[in-house]
Amino acid sequence: MQRLREALVLVFLAICSKAVNSMPFWWPSDTADAPGYCLSWRLAVEANNIRAWRTVPTQCSRHVEAYMIAGQYQRDLTLIVDTISTYVDTITLSDDGLDAWILDVDDTCISNLFYYRGKRYGCEPFDPLGFRAWALQGGCPAIPDVLRLFNKLVERGFKVFLVTGRDEETLGQATIQNLENQGFLGYQRLILRSGTYKGLSAITYKSEIRKQLVGEGYRIWGNVGDQWSDVQGDYAGNRTFKLPNPMYFIP
Amino acid sequence: MQRLREALVLVFLAICSKAVNSMPFWWPSDTADAPGYCLSWRLAVEANNIRAWRTVPTQCSRHVEAYMIAGQYQRDLTLIVDTISTYVDTITLSDDGLDAWILDVDDTCISNLFYYRGKRYGCEPFDPLGFRAWALQGGCPAIPDVLRLFNKLVERGFKVFLVTGRDEETLGQATIQNLENQGFLGYQRLILRSGTYKGLSAITYKSEIRKQLVGEGYRIWGNVGDQWSDVQGDYAGNRTFKLPNPMYFIP
């Protein structure tokens, strides 16, 4: 009896150990219904194969939640920012002050994760009024890896342009203060969407802004955003980087 | 004694069930050292953030192996091809015979997975002579999802161009026969790399080929490849699709 109990305890421990070792630690136990599909969906989104999607597929709600909050999103960000940082180190700046870098704002510099938690991480359709109310609070936290990149760029002498689709008139002041509160100090210009660009797609609007910067003589060494529409189009930059965002799509 | 044994068997089964349900079924048990990092690395590769890499990081050897052979690569392919197929259904073809589609060959139409198994799924650097010997055998199996797409495109009346960086002189005949053996019948043209394009990067060479096709009047509706260099550059196509390939990078 005692020997049997000991043997079974050993089997029990062996199984526990095996299970713990072979599980990705960020994996929630309740997405077993469709983990393969949701991994495929997220990869297809990040590789720009699936476009113009309106909501996260309902069956991927828990997958996206786990991805965003249980560590993998953070690890993905860190690896990309490390990659960017290595690229930055290879650049020799000239002394004409025209070496430029472009960063998107939402979910690039500052995070809307808390807002999207209330929208089931993108399973609910975009809510313009709800998002505006959130953004007006000016309480988006910095994304630490991107703040680290931002500071490095400023210190190295890049002119950093923050380019956002946020409406200048209604969200300008809140955005300026939010960025300042979160430590984004020393950028060259924050460019918000003015009346002229209302109704344009992000690709068209941001291409137009970059064209103007290039027209002013700036060399765009890098361009970082969480949307493909941040890094496609004209004058995209010498190198572009797409940060992960499985919560929403901006055309 | 009997009751204890029964109770322990129930506990055993409960644990097994829990472990099985919470593990992604394709996850190998021996990548627990760095699953998060390897997921990040693969995502960064597929989103074109990490470029010009020469080999798979050694610590990701088992991760990439598991990805390629245990089901997730296959699921990723199927979702992308389903997405492409939905896009194809939206296209109205004209009757001038100039509606074109471009497919890459290696690891798009036909698979080199068996070859790369011998190269530790990309952990060993590219071996031009070894790869040529493999390709000369003409034994690459079709990728079933892409063959399905190919047949749909041909049936719908698209002129399908297979564009590959393979050397025309040495690999032309073997490639033609390999494609035929695997059921790729009815394409418009197989374009291999002729002497004119030797030494050019894939982006430059493939852009040049597409420019010629557009010059002939073709409208490139879609362009599918496993490398970013297949789908970037000039005349890339109305929509481009990047199939997964974490085993090698072609600039």
Automatic annotation (TrEMBL), chains A, B:
Cited Pfam families: Acid_phosphat_B (PF03767)
GO molecular function annotations of the record: acid phosphatase activity
UniProt cross-references to InterPro entries, sorted A to Z: Acid_phosphat_B-like, Acid_phosphatase_pln, APS1/VSP, HAD-like_sf, HAD_sf
The UniProt record lists the keyword Signal: yes
Keyword DNA-binding: no
Residues annotated as signal peptide: 1-22
Keywords: Glycoprotein, Signal
NCBIfam families: plant-AP
Family designation: Belongs to the APS1/VSP family.
PANTHER family xrefs: ACID PHOSPHATASE-LIKE PROTEIN, HAD SUPERFAMILY, SUBFAMILY IIIB ACID PHOSPHATASE
Protein name: Acid phosphatase 1
Organism: Sesamum alatum
